Amino acid sequence: MEIAQRKSNALALVARAMVSTADFEQALGTLIETVGRLLDVESGGFLLYDPDYDELVLQRPAFGLWDAKIISEYHVPISAGGNAVRVFLSQRPYMTNDAPHDSRLIQRFVKMFGGRSILSIPLAVEDRPIGVFHAVNKRSGDFTQADLDLLLEVAPLIAAGVQSARMFNELREQRRQFERAVFLQAELSRAVLDAPGMASLAERLADLIARPVMVLDTALRPLASARWPNDRMPRQSWLRSTRHSGQGGRGALTMSEATAPGGAEDEPPVLTLIAVGTHFGGYLAVLSAGAPLDVLDTRAIEHAAGIFALEMLREQSAYEVESRLKGDVLQDLSTGSYRDEEEATTLVRRLGYTVSGPYRVARVDTSHPSGDSAPGQARWQEEIQGPRSRLYGAFTELCGELLGVGAIAPWRSGFLLLLPASTAESDVELAGQLFSRLREAGQRIRPGLRLHVSLGSAVDSAGALSQSLEEAERALAVGRTLDITDRPLVFEHLGVYRVLLGPNSSRDRQEFVEEALGAVIRYDLQHGTDLLETLRAWVTADYNVNEAAQGMFMHTNTLRYRLKRLRALLGGDPCRGDLRFQVELALKLFDLPRLAGGPVPPPREES
């Protein structure tokens, strides 16, 4: 009768404890206190099974302690064995009144909580094991079979109470996560609307989670960052040392003792995949900043990664549309497929260029650093021209900042720029400034990037842009051939290389002759002189004044006077350096039509 009454009272006490609070930790504390009164024990603790890590995890409070750091050390893998694991797997209780000398117990934990006598029972809900309960240190002597029977009697009710409290806690946690996710998505969506781009999103996320953030592409190259320390640059070991996070769930990666040359990293980052469907954009990296990420933070980062993926897709789609539209316009301008000057001007304005001529076309060509394998066109557009590398956006911003106006569009293996033209000297100076800024931006975005920049000649009308574009392409070909990457190459400065490295067309030859000898030919026409023949005779005589004078039947002083005039017209001494080669080649090319029996083209009039 007394035993039955004791069991009845125990069931009533446990039942009241179950409904006393909905808070998970308080519910466990109340159940421990109730069992303590029933069995006259000092303390107790619940170990619940975690299927993600296949281990028994001690819950707070336990054994009279609320210290999360101490309790967090009590994790018992199922593979490790020990008393708790045996009780859990066998679903059979265990009782000992000599814990310090019991070989079945893990003595590290016995010492940690000062165990003398321990009564362990399995907990199950509908025949599904959920954990183990330990009653520790009976005050009034040893544990008895009656104590064990009583605890087993109330064990199903205790297990139901624990499960109910845990389910309620999970629902509350899910609600917190949902509210946090909704808030985060709303804030990041607002950031996208206010200031689109990876940089603004990274800044806002760093503010929301109070931790450093970095956005990386698929090759671990930084795209944007906020609060990120300068000495923590990405490395491949971040990927090799990662494992799927149990907290983070699918798609989250967390570092597990990542090491680098020189020792272990102080703050291993959390990496989360940036992906939508089959589109993989890169990684979202977050540093813990001295405070481990909790479940809410991890879930928030996962939701943020989705926002970043959508922003990448939006940028890519916008880029592809803009690239296609501008490409069509450039194709029309380069081929001259328009009816009149007004239509050509309209095409220029469709490129975003609102200033009337004169114009210059600039070609910007980018190539991979030495040692990289040659990428296919799809990879090229994605990594170099695409928005993730930000070259296109950075170059566009630079044009607006440096030039006040400038149209830029993807073109072949790089970009094409439409620039305002002025005097040749100022255009060259401006091109140098532009080249320096473009190279600086390119190195910042893609270290080791090689840059070639070339400019066509200035043209007055939009209808003549095809000529400037053709000249910029020819100058670019020379720059590539000679590997000129330290300065922009201007078409007017190509000199003899227009002929040596060009397509060797009659137009190229004529323009080179005009550039080299045009001033002399025009002087002869205007003054009725024969300085060109004097120059030819002097060159034929191997620059010997006496021999040339004899061949022309003139006094040497007369020849010297003419040579003085020639030097002024040619801008230097034609028997020295590059000018000598340029003059001799121009004379040969000037004579080609005569040798072929055709008319010699007249020189251009000075503008």
Number of domains: 4
Strand content: 15-25%
Uncertain parts: 241-265, 370-378
The shape, in one word, is rod-shaped
Number of helices: 20
Q: Strands across the major sheet, in which order?
A: 3-2-1-6-5-4
DSSP E strands, number: 19
CATH C-level class of the largest domain is Alpha Beta
Helix content: 40-55%
Q: Rg from C-alpha positions?
A: 41 Å
- End-to-end separation in angstroms reads 124 Å
| CATH T-level fold name of the largest domain | Beta-Lactamase
Structural class: alpha+beta
The CATH architecture designation of the largest domain is: 2-Layer Sandwich
CATH superfamily of the largest domain: GAF domain
Mean pLDDT: 78
Biggest sheet layout = 6 strands, antiparallel
Structure description:
This protein has 20 helices and 19 strands. It is of the alpha+beta class and 607 residues long. It has 4 domains: 2-171, GAF domain (Beta-Lactamase, 2-Layer Sandwich); 195-318, 2-Layer Sandwich (Beta-Lactamase), CATH 3.30.450.40; 336-494, Alpha-Beta Plaits (2-Layer Sandwich); 506-595, PucR C-terminal helix-turn-helix domain (Arc Repressor Mutant, subunit A), CATH 1.10.10.2840. The strands form 4 sheets. A 6-stranded antiparallel beta sheet has the order 3-2-1-6-5-4, with helices on both faces. A hairpin with a 2-residue loop joins strand 16 (407-411) and strand 17. Helix 6 packs parallel to helix 9.
Topology:
Elements: H1 2-18, H2 24-39, E1 41-50, E2 55-58, H3 68-71, E3 75-77, H4 83-90, E4 94-96, H5 107-112, E5 118-125, E6 128-138, H6 145-194, H7 198-209, E7 213-216, E8 222-226, H8 237-240, E9 242-244, E10 252-255, E11 259-260, E12 263-264, E13 270-276, E14 279-286, H9 295-335, H10 341-350, E15 359-367, H11 377-385, H12 391-403, E16 407-411, E17 414-420, H13 424-445, E18 450-455, H14 465-482, E19 489-490, H15 497-500, H16 506-527, H17 531-540, H18 545-552, H19 556-570, H20 577-595
Parallel strand pairs: 18-19
Antiparallel strand pairs: 1-2, 1-6, 2-3, 4-5, 5-6, 7-8, 7-14, 9-10, 10-13, 11-12, 13-14, 15-17, 15-18, 16-17
Helix pairs in contact: 1-2, 1-6, 2-6, 6-7, 6-9, 7-9, 9-10, 12-13, 16-20, 17-18, 18-19
